[in-house]
Specification:
heterodimer; A: 348 residues; alpha+beta; six-stranded antiparallel β-sheet; 11 helices; globular; B: mainly alpha; three-stranded antiparallel β-sheet; 3 helices; 46% helix
């Protein structure tokens, strides 16, 4: 069967120790049975490893950071589109999703499609709003409060207690056992990711994660639950295994039905000693371990492209249980000319 | 006393629990005991087998057996109505 030629732009090429999902997403696209994908990598920094992976990334352009504003991003992508004729963009960073959501209608007019949650969905599931989200959708979540000043930790400690999780609004989380610990993490995380900081009740148990894909009409297109087996000191999975758990799949279905979620997501769940799951976080994007889902039979990036193009996608019915992913690092030898090219011209 | 049907045991004694993602390794004695429970054998029959074929005392076997079942329960490998 001949595959349809298509150009897809992908962000998060930072396949580093705290990896972005871009390279794994691209591997899924390249393994597609229905699309012959030409990949345009979108990078923020000139040392993102994906820039130099010529076998899977066909062209690369630097794009401005979200802090530069939506107009800068639009102007840059308009230029890239004029050169590459982009058909689909898959943004993969939490921090860039908001500007991409804001620009989706303008991109559509240019002929560029995306599959993203709505602005309401994006905001509603935010860590800051998680307790209200849990109440509204009938999902068990640990108690949490946003803190804008270090002094608020004292009051929060009265209701949440210790240990507590101190989390950044986009990334980073630490377990604090004392007020001093919590203040230290508050300062450290807020300096990097801004305010507020989320103070969340610590749930003791085993962490599980689910990658999923909703079609925006309440239907589950894909879902694979895993248990992380090896977690780095940055809290990132370096190994994991697909598991079979009806409770997690039911919870995922309930999440998709109740929110009418559109696009990919990751649910971070904690299973306590009573075997009950609490929802710790909803990441509104593809997680870095997406290649495991592809490896067990659910090519989520391929399905995202189809849904973004408005095509009917049959939900994945099954996946292989007991398959593992083990991440590794790999040194590439890169000519200085290439680095110079991307650093000077912002494209290659 | 019933082990969940989806618990996989390999010839090398490697156990994988597909519900939790946990894996374990059994020594040959553990494999034998696991196999007998999986076959549906009841405690008196298993005890008799071990006392006949292993150099062990009745009370030692009973304690080890209870420990083994406790472990299977705590790792969610038994059917729910069998769990303590």
């Amino acid at each position: 069967m001949s595959r349809r030629k298509i150009t897809v732009a992908v962000t998060a090429l930072n396949a580093i120790d705290s990896p972005g999902p871009g390279v794994s997403v691209i591997r899924g696209l390249k393994e597609s049975k229905i699309y012959d994908v030409r990949v345009v990598g979108l990078a923020y920094e000139s040392l993102e490893p994906g820039i130099y992976m010529h076998d899977i990334v066909d062209r690369v352009y630097q794009i401005p950071y979200p802090s530069a504003g939506v107009e800068s991003l639009f102007a840059r992508l308009e230029y890239i589109h004029s050169r590459e004729n982009l058909e689909v963009i898959i943004p993969n960073f939490d921090a860039e999703l908001f500007p991409f959501i804001r620009l989706s209608e303008r991109f559509k007019k240019l002929g560029i499609r995306m599959l993203l949650p709505t602005e309401h969905q994006f905001e509603e599931r935010h860590k800051i709003n998680l307790p209200e989200f849990g109440k509204k959708h009938g999902i068990k979540v640990p108690g949490s409060v946003p803190a804008y000043q270090g002094a608020e930790i004292f009051k929060a400690a009265e209701t949440i207690g210790f240990p507590m999780l101190v989390k950044g609004k986009y990334y980073d989380a630490h377990v604090a056992f004392t007020i001093e610990h919590a203040r230290e993490y508050f300062n450290k995380i807020s300096a990097k990711w801004g305010l507020p900081i989320i103070l969340q009740k610590y749930v003791k148990g085993v962490e599980y994660n689910v990658i999923g894909l909703g079609d925006g009409e309440g239907n589950r297109i894909a879902a694979v639950p895993i248990r992380k087996q090896y977690i780095t000191d940055k809290g990132k999975a370096w190994g994991g295994i697909s598991v079979s758990d009806e409770t997690m799949l039911k919870l995922t279905d309930h999440f998709i039905e109740s929110t009418k979620w559109r696009g990919p997501f990751e649910l971070e769940l904690m299973k306590d000693e009573k075997n009950e799951f609490s929802l710790l976080e909803i990441n509104p994007r593809i997680p870095a371990w997406v290649y495991l889902a592809i490896g067990v039979g659910q090519n989520i990036p391929e399905a995202i492209v189809s849904l973004a193009l408005g095509e009917k996608v049959e939900p994945f019915k099954s996946y292989e249980v007991g398959k593992m992913f083990i991440r590794y690092s790999w040194d590439m030898i890169v000519d200085l000319k290439e680095y110079q090219q991307i650093s000077t011209y912002g494209e290659r | 006393m019933k082990i969940k049907s989806n618990i996989a045991l390999s010839e090398s004694g490697f156990i994988f629990n597909p519900n939790t993602g946990e894996s374990f390794t059994l020594n040959p004695t553990g494999q034998l005991l696991f196999g007998l429970i999986r076959e549906g054998k009841e405690f008196p029959e298993i005890r008799e087998y071990f006392l006949e074929n292993f150099e062990t005392e009745e009370d030692v076997f009973e304690k080890d057996f209870e420990d083994f079942i406790h472990l299977l329960n705590s790792y969610q490998m038994m059917e729910p109505d069998e769990q303590a």
